[in-house]
User: Which sequence fits this backbone?
């Protein structure tokens, strides 16, 4: 997609920030108005979940769980968490294989086909035909063998790709801001006669190594410090800003482990920008009401 469609898709992510804000208000002050706004904010996330998007599903339930904890200090029983983990072993690969067809099969009451596909998906994972850690190991070895590293340029290129609108500023200008050194998995076919299977990921571990060698592990140390600071600020100082950022960064942090780190930086900028705007205007409106 190009043009305004990309801008609309980019801005739809604010709906998760809105969902967290309205849900917090609904739990603290139940009312028809808060219920209505929360329901409206949940429409797009729920439709995305019905299309079989796993990240949207996890983000949705993380928002609900953390909002319940933040207001009511509610923690689900251990047995519930264990059951959800076991259930996730079936659901995650199933959604990855079928996407929205999961609900089509359920609507048709074709439970046999659904069960067969679920079992097949789980066996594919257990057999290890498409192992992300194999991808990571070979990318790491290729980077070490060729001694070619990005030194953060890959992450910078991702930020430029996400936030510099080529349709307004020109694609030539946008490309001039990027290094475009290229990922090292391009060497995998030459070095190992291996290509990353379609649908699998490189993992954040490989991405960190590809950029900064073994020093890439410091990114995860930095991430731990960020989350600890946000947690302390939200729990002990009741900072809504820190809490909303904590919620917003939870899903990108998981992607930084399973996919790549570039998404974490782009999502972090998005969350800081729009949560900051929401907090700023809420304080402005509050001060005007007081005056």
Assistant:
């Amino acid at each position: 997609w190009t043009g305004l469609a990309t801008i609309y898709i980019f801005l739809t992510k604010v709906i998760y920030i809105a969902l967290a804000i309205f849900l917090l208000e609904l739990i603290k002050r139940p009312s028809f108005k808060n219920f209505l706004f929360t329901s409206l904010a949940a429409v797009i996330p729920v439709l995305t979940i019905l299309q079989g998007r796993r990240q949207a599903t996890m983000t949705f339930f993380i928002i609900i769980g953390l909002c319940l904890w933040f207001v009511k200090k509610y923690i689900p029983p251990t047995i519930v968490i264990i059951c959800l983990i076991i259930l996730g072993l079936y659901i995650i690969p199933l959604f990855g294989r079928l996407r929205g067809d999961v609900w089509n099969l359920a609507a048709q009451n074709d439970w046999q086909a659904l069960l067969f596909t679920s079992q097949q998906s789980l066996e594919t994972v257990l057999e290890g035909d498409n192992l992300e850690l194999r991808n990571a190991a070979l990318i790491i070895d290729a980077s070490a063998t060729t001694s070619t590293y990005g030194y953060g340029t890959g992450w910078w290129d991702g930020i430029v790709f996400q936030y510099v609108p080529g349709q307004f500023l020109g694609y030539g200008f946008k490309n001039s801001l990027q290094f475009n050194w290229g990922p090292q998995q391009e060497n995998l076919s030459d070095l190992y006669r291996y290509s990353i299977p379609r649908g699998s990921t490189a993992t954040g571990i490989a991405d960190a190594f590809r950029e900064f060698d073994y020093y890439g592990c410091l990114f995860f140390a930095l991430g731990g410090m960020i989350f600890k600071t946000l947690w302390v600020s939200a729990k002990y100082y009741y900072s809504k800003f820190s809490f909303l950022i904590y919620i917003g960064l939870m899903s990108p942090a998981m992607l930084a482990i399973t996919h790549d780190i570039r998404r974490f930086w782009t999502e972090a900028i998005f969350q800081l920008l729009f949560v900051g705007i929401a907090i700023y205007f809420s304080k402005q409106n509050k001060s005007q009401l007081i005056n």
Q: What stands out?
A: Residues 203 and 259 are 4 Å apart (CA to CA).
